[in-house]
Amino acid sequence: QVQLKESGGGLVQTGGSLTLSCVASGFAFNRFTMSWVRQAPGKELEWVAGMNSLRTDISYADSVKGRFTISRDNTKNTLYLQMNNLNPDDTARYYCVLGRKGSITADRGQGTQVTVSS
Questions:
Q1: Are 37 and 94 in contact (CB under 8 A)?
Q2: Which of 22, 74, 94, 106 is the most exposed place for a label (fewest CB within 10 A)?
Q3: What would the DSSP string read from start to end of 35-72?
Q4: How far is it, in rounded angstroms, from Cα 53 to Cα 1?
Q5: 12 in helix, strand or coil?
């Protein structure tokens, strides 16, 4: 079965950086578009960034464009999200998911919490 294990979250100050990782198993990672999504308390799930299997199609939400970078290592079945210049609006639980914006599957890991203090 699909397993997704996120890590790398933490507490940072405004302007700080974090790199999230997601190790995937149970499916052919190198054949799937992957995305990062996030959910803040009381808010809907928000798609953040996505990358296709060949790393040729990359897209970002406007709210993170220029600050976040998605990447993947298909040899390690791992998806990454480099987050720079963080601000309190980025505080949320972050999840990696299969699929692209508007078409993600229901598979979820436990997520990793990112908290940005002002």
A1: yes
A2: 106
A3: EEEEE-TTS--EEEEEE-TTS--EEE-TTTTTTEEEEE
A4: 19
A5: strand
For CA atoms 72, 73, 79, 81, the dihedral sign is negative
Give 94-106 pLDDT, tens digit per residue.
Answer: 999 999 998 998 8
Alpha-carbon dihedral sign for residues 93, 96, 101, 103: negative
Q: What is the pLDDT of residues 26-72, one digit of tens each?
A: 999 999 999 999 999 999 999 999 999 999 999 999 999 999 999 99
Question: Per DSSP, what are the bridge partners of residue 103?
Answer: 100
Distance CA 82, CA 95 (A): 14
Could you give the C-alpha distances from 17 to 30, 54, 83, 84, 87, in angstroms and in order?
27, 26, 5, 4, 10
Q: Residue 92 has which token pair?
A: 């949320």
- Alpha-carbon distance of 41 to 56, in angstroms, equals 33
